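note to self — DONT lose this again. spent like an hour looking for the file last time. sequence + predicted structure for the chain T wanted, 246 res
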Amino acid sequence: MKRFGLASLIMLAASLAMAEDKPLMQDVWKEVLRKGTEAASTVKNVGKPRVVPKGAKPEIVLKKDQIWIDGKLVAIGQPFQAWENALADKLKCSVPKPKNDIRYCVSDRLGIALGSSMRNTKVVKFFKIYVNLEQLHPYGVATHRPDGTPRPPPVDTRPKHSFPGYLELDGYGIDAKSQFWEIRAGSDPWRELRCGLRDCAHPHGAFSETATLYLRLNSSTEHGNVYEFTISGREEYPPQKAVPGK
């Protein structure tokens, strides 16, 4: 939707607010919000999506609700050790505090992070792939204390390197140059990958009945490249089993 169209709807809602009763006004605003969401979620494909060649390792293939790492099946809700075995790399993990903390592990070599929930620190709740690494800036953070002494820089818990391997979603390869509109065009329609209401910096969609796909882009438009590609389970989910051939 063009800006003019959305602005026209807002003007219409305002005029009806003065002429009609409150229930009708609520219905009009619901329609305005619905149209705004559709406008923000619409992705205009430009050209033909790039083809990313296979061969890089590790190979992470996401097919339906399954996660394959170099041919080994893993799942959200499994112990960290199962993921470490599949990644074939020693993870660097934090030690959770007794209360209100999570277990957080990274692979510096593979550009991957794993984390638990606060309720269960023994199993993986989210899986994050750093397709690109951004240069961190202390946005909104004062560089000096009130007494004038400098503050230490924020702790960077990310892996030291970006993902060097091959990532595939529904048969479509993704790399550091892939744009969101390409990923959306290459994914299964049932995932409903979409932008947010205000912009497209944090698109999301379905991974399974118990997990969601989250992307973070380096732009607020559908032409942005991916910084982070995350699969996160819901806070309340039954333990999943990695069953080949599902």
